[in-house]
Input
Amino acid sequence: MTSARNLLDLQEFDRRLAEQRDAYRKTATELKAEAGLPALRAETESARVKALETRVHHSRLLAEVTALRERLQQIESRLYSGTITNMRELTALQEEQNAAKRNFATAEEAVSPAATASQEANQLYEAKKAELAKREEEWKVREAALRSENHALARDYKLLERERNSTASHVKDADLAAYNSILKRKEGLAVVRVERGICQCPRRLKLPLREIAKLKDSEALVTCSSCGRILLAT
Ligand SMILES: [Zn+2]
Output
């Protein structure tokens, strides 16, 4: 009887300990996930690189346009200087002028889309950066709360565990072993009360009279012949 009662207390401790372990695991998982910040940090970094690349590309194009304009001007100033009288040289220079014009036009056409792309990439980066900063701030607050919650859970767990072990120390080793084994097999419910001759297990089984009589007389643990759990008379 006393043993069964202690085991019922023990079962309650074990239930609460399991709950605390779950809560601890939950907060630990949330802490580890960092509210998805690692992914956002990576996205922000790649947006930064992309913004830099498009800016460099735009700058290069601008420099190229300047160089091609100068080259075209050089060709044209030679062409119209009046110093070239050789027909073949003149034709060659005209061809060079045409090629330079085409190159210049091609480069110039690419400038505007590159400027737009650079601007857009920069806007995207700025937006990501702002979002990251905001979320980092929010996470700081949440993380502090989670850490203190975890700390409290760990402290409470130790206290509860001490109480549990103290209760367990009053139970015979054999009874404790039986309890642990049933607890594992019966999903955390090893000890059940008997009320009005009915085992209070999830299936609410009616006990035979001889079993109830045995429960009243016996000092040793009595297990339910139907569900196999330790019975406690009330
Ligand atoms: Zn039962």
Q: What stands out?
A: DSSP finds five helices and four strands in the chain. The chain has two domains: 28-168, 173-233. The helical segments are 2-33, 37-79, 87-168, 173-185, 209-217. The beta strands are 191-195, 198-199, 205-206, 230-233.
